[in-house]
Write a structure and sequence with these properties.
Helix content: 25-40%
Strand order of the largest sheet: 1-5-4-2-3
CATH superfamily: Rhodanese-like domain
Number of domains: 1
Number of strands: 5
CATH architecture: 3-Layer(aba) Sandwich
CATH class: Alpha Beta
CATH topology: Oxidized Rhodanese, domain 1
């Protein structure tokens, strides 16, 4: 599985192609509080139910709050056959916000 740091996601976010997806695997409350604009939200405990939906993308960038859930989500999805995952396994949404990057907030 490929991996990048959360702050590296910004260059991918700025050049996101139609066949790429940013996936937030945090809780609904965390997602509502702040998320990367246009990110798709699938809570960690439900990701295994979305393999068919996710397999059509060239790259799926998976992030969470700290990197732990994104790593575990990628491991689960990879074990179910997905090979298009880019795991943000170092840093998370707090780092994105702290850097002042665009975020959707209530």
């Amino acid at each position: 599985m490929k991996s990048i740091q959360m702050l590296e996601l910004k260059s991918h976010f700025e050049n996101l192609q139609k066949d790429e997806l940013i996936l937030d695997v945090r809780t609904p409350a965390e997602f509502t509080e702040s998320h990367v604009p246009n990110a798709k939200h699938i809570p960690f405990d439900l990701v295994m139910n979305h393999v068919d939906e996710l397999k059509h993308f060239k790259n799926v960038y998976v992030y969470c709050r700290s990197g732990s859930r994104s790593y575990n989500a990628c491991a689960i999805l990879e074990s179910l056959g997905l090979k298009n995952l880019v795991c943000i396994d170092e840093g998370g949404m707090p780092d994105w916000n702290e850097a002042g990057y665009p975020a959707t907030k209530p």
